[in-house]
Amino acid sequence: MNKNEIGLNAEKVWHLLGNYDRWDYSALKNKSGLKDAELGAAIGWLAREDKIMLYQDSGKLYVFLGVNVFIG
């Protein structure tokens, strides 16, 4: 896995999250077709860019789009 592959996987996850639903990790993994390491890297990429929010409840990890507001 290289940076280019991680970026492409992040884009795939980004598109899945585009409906603004809250996805649990398992559903996101199944729908994306990514392996654990690939999905983890993609989520990390998006989290580092402040594009997603992560939420944990009852041992489940949820991922959803973050809302970035810039007022300049």
List keywords for this structure.
72 residues; alpha+beta; three-stranded antiparallel sheet; 3 helices; 19% strand
Descriptive notes:
It contains 3 helices and 3 strands; from the N terminus they run αβααββ. By secondary structure, it is α+β, with helices and mostly antiparallel strands. The radius of gyration is 12 Å and the shape is globular. The protein has helices spanning 3-16, 25-32, 36-48; strands at residues 23-24, 52-57, 60-65. The chain has a single domain (3-65), classed as Orthogonal Bundle (Arc Repressor Mutant, subunit A). 49% of the residues lie in helices and 19% in strands. A 3-stranded antiparallel sheet has the order 1-3-2.
How would you summarize this macromolecular structure in one to three sentences?
This protein has 72 residues and is an alpha+beta fold. The protein contains 3 helices and 3 strands, in the order H-E-H-H-E-E.
Largest sheet: 3 strands, antiparallel
Supply the number of structural domains: 1
Biggest sheet strand line-up: 1-3-2
Residue share in β-strands: 15-25%
